[in-house]
Amino acid sequence: MHYVFILLTSQDNVQFLSSLQRFFDVIASGSTAVIRDVLSSLFQHLAILRGVSSYLRSSQNMTDLLVRIANAIIRRCRELICHPSSIFQQPSADVVSKCKSAIALNLSFQEQYRLAKEKSIAERDRLRSSDGDLSSHSVRPHSSTTKRGAMSSAKTSLPFDFGENLIFGRFELFVLRLQQLVEIFTAVEQFDGMRRVALIDMKSFAVEFFLIFERFKSQPYDMLDYTSVLFERDYRHFCEAMIEIEAHASTYVSSQFETLPSTSAALAVLQELRSVAKRATMIADMDAKIAHVFRRYSRDLGAIAKEYESFKEDPPRVRNYSPTVAAIVWSSHLRRRVENPMAVFRENAAIMAAPESKPVFKRHGIICRALSEFEKMWIDTFEAHAMDLRSALHASIFKSSIVHVSKTSHRLSSLRESPSSWQSTSIHSCAMSSLMRRG
């Protein structure tokens, strides 16, 4: 009789475990996204099997099954990361993306386990509450009904709580290794971008980094073997050398700022470096340098305001331009010096949120309004002169209006010196040159 019971139990176990085969097939051959999608159904199915399978009622057996599932997911992640070739023969961005997908899969795996655990606890509390209500009822239920209810409660109220260290321990070690590889290949992507920086020479730092990287990747062990102690030693040495290179690069960039002629030039360099920065340390360093440039920009605003106050009554003359057009060009140049850097600073959330930035923004607004009004005043003056020239030059050459045009030397000066005034008067160049000779 004992052997018959064992046989029937084994047949039940085979039947129950076979119902999980479709999930195991997905884990063995699916992508990380597909595996993540079936985890919810997998844990719901496991919770049901725990209530009906005598084998899976054992916490030890259930823990062993979950450990096997976790190991199968780890194997599949390793296969996906190494496909279609070694991680060092794939683009760095692809390796980083695959590692991050595997890390996200671990989080989903643990999340679905905890949701199943919380659901089982809530179900157990509900059944206990309902049993308490029945026991306090004045009418005693039939004995057979009570037995069936007790059996149902025993099947469905089993807690889904197992040895989490055993289930997730290896997966956590694997994730730690993936995070280390993400750091390495993010640095590879960053220093590869440094070789293409055009505004300042960063190639020497990239060359130094890739010499260290070549030595690191030549190690004979499997980089995805999370049990390897040798990797930890080499990874520590690699990070120390990489941090040193980044420090030298940061010092070099700071020294180059002293030679840059303007705030706009410094921002152009920082924007290019920020576009290739991938590691958090370099991103933070670039943000700190942008804050330094912002302080420099604050001083520039003071110099621009002082220059404007000094020359607004008599704007600087520009060769080959009339005084009117020269004033417009000068004010436009000052306005670009004010507005172009601010367009970059507005994209930086830290600068926008800093309390000490508010006076700078206020001063920027005041200067911009003053320059815009100044420029508009001179543009209106230019347009008025252009309309006078248009009316005078359209007069017949047989009348005395030519003498009138000849006597207005400031208008002829505008025609000679300002190419833009030629377009405003809509006069053909041959007619204009004829009138200038006559003048």
Report on this model:
The chain has helices spanning 2-18, 21-29, 32-52, 59-81, 92-135, 143-156, 164-194, 203-217, 229-257, 263-276, 280-311, 323-345, 349-353, 358-393, 401-407, 409-417, 419-425, 429-438. Helix content is 79%, strand content 0%. By secondary structure, it is an all-alpha fold. It has 18 helices and no strands. The radius of gyration is 39 Å and the shape is elongated. Helix 4 runs antiparallel to helix 5 and helix 7 (164-194) runs antiparallel to helix 8. Mean pLDDT is 83; it is low at 138-156, 398-408 and 417-439. It has three domains: 2-125 and 162-174, no CATH class; 192-302, no CATH class; 305-438.
